Amino acid sequence: MAEQKKLHYYILFKTYTQGMMMQELLKKDGIKSRIAPAPRAIQGELGCGMSLLIEPELIDAVRESIAKTKAEYHDIVPYETNINPGRNRFC
Amino acid sequence: MADYRKMWEDLGMDLETHDQLCAVLPTAFGDVYLSQENRPEGMGFWDMVVADVHGIRPAELIEAQKNGQKVFGTFCVYVPDEVIIAANGIVTGLCGGSQFWVPDGEAVLPKSTCPLIKASVGARLGKTCPFFRIADMYVGETTCDGKKKAWEILAQDVPLHVMDVPQMKRPKDIEKWGEEIKEFVKVVEDFTGNKITAENLKEAIHTINEKRKGLARVYEARKAENIPISGRDALLVSQIAFFDDPKRCAMMTNKLADELEERIKNGVSVFPAGTKRIMLTGTPMAIPNWKLHQIIETSGAAVVCEETCTGTRYFENLVDETKDNLDDMIKAIADRYMGIHCACFTPNTERVDDIVRLAKEYKVDGVIDVNLKFCTLYDVEGYTVEKALKEAGIPVLGIETDYADSDAEQLKTRIQAFVELLD
Description:
heterodimer; A: alpha+beta; B: alpha/beta; four-stranded parallel beta sheet; 53% helix; globular
């Protein structure tokens, strides 16, 4: 598996229930999202927490869906993610 | 991204150090989980739990404490959850699966202690695990020498009850274990202020059995030729089961199993056809120890079963639900738990029989016998395990490792060579 370094969008939430609700609403609109721990660098003063990871090609559809459903969220942050299954760095 | 900092502060945690863990978890999770294709949709629940692993469940536990419930932190699959649940207590696992906690453990323990013990003690003393801060009482056991001495250190910091697990499984040992459970009933009653009755114990036995059945269904799906779930995902399900509410765990595992069974019907696999099937046997893998699974599953093989305490030993065999009086129920609990085959027992031929049986049930191509460094019991038993597997014609690779990243490349080379030899 090759290294996957690319820009993603992270939707951040004040509570995980907002995140779960958002994922359901996006799913109804046929938009794929993945639950991921929010990278520390984009969390500001807040602690560990869940986010929704969005592929860049889907972000416009996500924004349209949110405008329609008024789903609650804290912020949408572009962030270059380096997902590398061969890195062998664990925690 | 809820703000749990206030909660962690109130728990007396070291926020600055804990923040370093928050920084590395997303990267490790991304590499191990987000890199996978075609994961079951049901895994979203476990992803959510991990993403907020020190937030969501700790907040639930604190809320329960406000309502008068007591939280018991446990370290081992021999501690009978049923007793705690019957007294309206809550069982939680405790942190212990990361190198992050090891240095704080080594501050008080010899370096030649297994990483699971060092990490557990380090997580408590370093104040970087909310579960260790929340638990009102820890329940230890006598399953190894390192743990027995670690309890003495932890007991200086928090109430701790130790259950004396027998060393052998003769009838008199099983009877003694029943007496130990009776004593535990008294400890839990006194601590919670709630009486354990035949009625609430019967209900608790049912609750925990249902959780076991849910986990068993997920594992059953892994026996299919088309493997519907990765070993990494199955491991995560099992790891979180130690922390979750047992009824929710049963519900979510059954929901996941529904999806996996549908995948099997539709021939959906997360691995290419012909991927070699590996069973792991040996020492437990506490969250977030995903190291060996990740190395194996990025080396052209799939993990289809774990004969470990974070695998089949956790859920196989149910407590007999037909008993109606307290003494018979406690005996049924004692019998079930003495059916777990840990290397701390002598002799322990049942475990070897289990490994050969499971290797056949899960149709594995090879077994990796993994021991956490300095776990003498599993290390020594490895000789007998590997001999039995060879006699059964099942290829086996013995590995000793810890939580550090430093041996990952070497392990990958060895595992790749082992997988290639399975052709």
